[in-house]
Every structure is written in C-alpha cells, then in structure tokens.
Amino acid sequence: MNYKEIMNDKSKECIRSTRGRCIGYKPQWRFLKKGDAEEFAWKDVPIKRVPASEARGVPEPFEHGGILSTINMLGHAQAWALAWEYAAVAEQEGEKVEVGICAYEVDFEINATAAEQLG
C-alpha cells in the first residue's frame, strides 16, 4: 500500500490518497452428505458485524481491516475462525458440514480532499 500527499495545482488544497491491493476472505460451508447439486454447493457463512462496544467473536485483522469490513470480508485467520465456529455449531445441532474459505483479490483506492478549513 502506498501513501502520498500532494498539492492540487488549481486550489493548493491538500489531497491525501492511498491505493493498493490485498486479499479478502469469506468463510464458506456445505453439507457433507451429497444430495442434489444445490444442496451440496458452497454457501457463505453469515457474517454479522456489531459495534466495537458489543464486539464478540473475531477481531478485525490488523492490516486492511477497515477496508475489508466495508465490503464484508475478513482476514485469513478471521475467516477460518468463523468457518470452524460454524462447523462446531452445526455439529452440535446434529449436522455434518465441510468448511473452507474463499479468497478474493481486493483492489482499492481512497482519495481525500479538503472540503472546508475549520479554525
């Protein structure tokens, strides 16, 4: 990830910009018993985000956590943690599931320009 601060030639206001690429993950599951194709297909494990004050479960990843959370993705360790938790709950309820994670390449670019000078 790169970070740069440049001066806009037209208005001389400070522009901050960052862009980069990272990998985001989604935990997935499917039934172990082979039924019809739709039942045996991989499905996303539901992810519920809550305010930090109510946070339980897995923490955001240190690198790119804010970017990944905006598109409802996780870091590698966090995705596996939720996948295995899903398997444990399913087994407790009498279901046998297989879990895995799916990786996605995430490209991002964030730009900020001064909107108003305060003070």
Task: Give your account of this protein's structure.
The chain is an alpha+beta fold and 119 residues long. The protein has a domain at 24-104. Helices cover 23% and strands 36% of the residues. The protein is built from 3 helices and 4 strands; from the N terminus they run ββαβααβ. The protein has helices at 37-40, 65-70, 76-92; strands at 2-7, 14-31, 43-44, 97-113. Strands 1, 2, 3 and 4 form a 4-stranded antiparallel beta sheet that branches. The longest helix has 17 residues, at 76-92. The mean pLDDT is 80.
Name its key features.
119 residues, 23% helix, alpha+beta, 3 helices
Secondary-structure topology with pairs:
Elements: E1 2-7, E2 14-31, H1 37-40, E3 43-44, H2 65-70, H3 76-92, E4 97-113
